[in-house]
Design a protein that fits this description.
Length: 549
């Protein structure tokens, strides 16, 4: 309002200076119309010079208002006035026109309706409000769209990240974004996902290899950390110690009940050096000998991490060592006793202590019998050495099982003068043929009959038989003797083995008979068997492949 009026004031002043009152009236009209009100021209004393539109009958009317003194001092004033000259409140704007050293010569009063101004203000405020709302909505729309543009790829990245955290590696993010930073982030996550998948695949492959190796090992493996927790245990050890599948993660002293095993692991943990021990496990009335070897495991910082124990089943070696000890003892006994007898009898004869011919013959018989026993012992060892030197029997021919049983029974009865009814023969119902060396098979059956005779009570029956079974011919010798303990059965085929360590050598032999039987049958592509119960008797026998006509 002030700026618009000040533009026209110079024209108004020029018209006043030229006393062009008609022009002055026109400029007042323009100013009044421009402000939708009235324009008054007053002198320094406040008397009206001219106004538009005219509201007074004559000029020279004195105009009074609150800030008139300030206006006459050269200030621009404005105020709201309620005058009897107007029907409604007006806004007064006073502008000084002529100024000199003594003050203002004249002033322009512009009256504009307050209602119009308020309407304009409200209109402007409404426009500003709508503009603000529109700007806010536009900003929210742009922000929402921008957030969607950002949120969509970020949500995809979050989904892939969650899947990766759950172990689903190799997932990739497919994006078509205009944001370079988001594209770079997606590419980095895709690269990381692929690398993690490759790494995890390698780790799984290595773990599977380790599992395959541990599963295929006959040796048991047990690994514990420094807190004594079970980290790894393979299937073989679970079978050895009868452990459960869920033992991993438990304290091994709560799982393993053998003090010797606990002691050797604790020794390695405390002394930081390898240690070993041997333990014996009872299983199904048999004994297993286990070698336990423990080795400390260190981390990359040379700090003790735990201990790995290898459990090796050395039952066969241990049993062989025990048999070797028994072999030495048996050989010593088998040689020492007859040699002592021979030496004693020879000394008696050499010193001529024995005078009667009858006593001399008795001592000579002792020497002869002991020499025969040593000869049999040496022959047995030589037979075994001969069988060991070849893999298959020689001079094999077709033998009929029933005829073979009959011939062996005849020889055995004559040799030991056995009662006719004591030896029972179970011949097969039809002819059965095998391909074998007749002398070897005869030797096998005679050895088995000899053992049955030696270990059976007097007058106890002995059974010799053969039958067809699953394409093979089964031969057996059954007695009602003292039997064999179950824990000793697996050893009866060993050389020099004797179940009764205190038995008399002359009556029971040297322990080579069954070893010779096993060697002969295996060279005939057969297999031996034994069934026995203490105090109920034993059944020894073998299978040979059947031959068709």
């Amino acid at each position: 309002m002030i700026q618009n009026s000040q533009i026209l004031i110079p024209f108004l002043v020029n018209s006043i200076d030229d006393e062009q009152w008609q022009d002055v009236n026109q400029w007042l009209q323009i100013i009044a119309q421009q402000n939708s009100g009235q324009a008054w021209l007053i002198d320094r004393q406040g008397y009206l010079i001219m106004n538009y539109p005219p509201i007074f009958g004559e000029e020279g009317h004195h105009v009074q208002f609150v800030h008139s003194e300030r206006l006459m001092e050269g200030e621009i004033v404005s105020q709201r006035v309620g005058s009897p000259y107007f029907e409604r409140p007006m806004l007064l704007l006073g502008l000084p026109l002529f100024e000199n050293g003594d003050g203002v010569e004249a002033a322009l009063l512009i009256f504009s309706p307050v209602a119009g101004i308020n309407s304009t203000i409200r209109h402007v405020e409404t426009m500003m409000l709508y503009s603000s709302i529109l700007a806010i909505l536009l900003a929210m729309g742009l922000a929402y769209r921008w957030s969607k543009v950002l949120a969509s790829p970020l949500q995809k990245m979050q989904k892939v990240a969650l899947e990766m955290s759950e172990g689903s590696f190799g997932k990739t993010i497919e994006l078509k974004s205009n944001n370079q930073e988001i594209d770079d982030l997606a590419k980095s996550m895709n690269h990381m996902s692929r690398k993690l998948k490759e790494t995890m695949d390698d780790l799984v492959q290595e773990k599977n290899k380790l599992n395959y190796i541990l599963t295929g090992m006959d040796e048991g493996v047990l690994t514990i950390n420094s807190q004594r927790e079970i980290i790894l245990i393979n299937k073989s050890l679970k079978g050895m110690l009868n452990l459960e599948d869920e033992d991993t993660g438990q304290i091994f002293t709560e799982v393993v009940n053998d003090d010797s095993i606990i002691k050797v692991f604790e020794q390695s943990l405390q002394q930081n050096q390898p240690s070993y021990t041997e333990i014996t496990i009872e299983e199904d009335k048999t004994k297993k000998r286990i070698l336990v070897h423990c080795t400390p495991i260190y981390s990359h910082k040379e700090k003790l991490w735990g201990v790995v124990g290898i459990f090796q089943d050395i039952s066969e070696r241990w049993r062989f060592e025990q048999l070797q000890k028994d072999f030495v003892a048996n050989v010593s006994h088998e040689l020492k006793t007859p040699l002592s007898s021979i030496r004693g009898a020879a000394e008696m004869l050499a010193d001529e202590v024995v005078e009667s011919p009858q006593d001399r013959r008795r001592y000579l018989k002792i020497i002869l019998d002991e020499a025969k026993g040593l000869t049999n012992l040496v022959d047995g060892v030589l037979d075994l050495a001969e069988f060991d030197s070849r893999t298959e029997a020689k001079s094999k021919e077709k033998l009929e099982a029933g005829e073979t049983l009959q011939n062996v029974a005849f020889v055995f009865k004559k040799g030991v003068r056995l009662d006719e009814n004591r030896l029972q023969i179970k011949k097969p119902e039809k002819p059965l043929l095998v391909r074998a060396n007749p002398l070897n098979i005869k030797q096998v059956l005679l050895n088995l009959l000899d053992n049955a005779f030696k270990f059976s009570p007097d007058n106890a029956p002995i059974e010799l038989g053969a039958l067809e079974q699953d394409g093979e011919v089964k031969f057996w010798v059954k007695d009602r003797g003292i039997g064999i303990p179950s824990e000793e059965i697996e050893n009866v085929w060993e050389r020099f083995y004797k179940a009764d360590k205190a038995r008399n050598r002359q009556k029971f032999g040297s322990g080579l008979g069954l070893a010779i039987v096993k060697e002969i049958i295996e060279q005939h592509k057969g297999r031996v068997f034994v069934y026995s119960k203490p105090n109920e008797g034993s059944t020894f026998g073998f299978f040979l492949p059947q031959v068709k006509d």
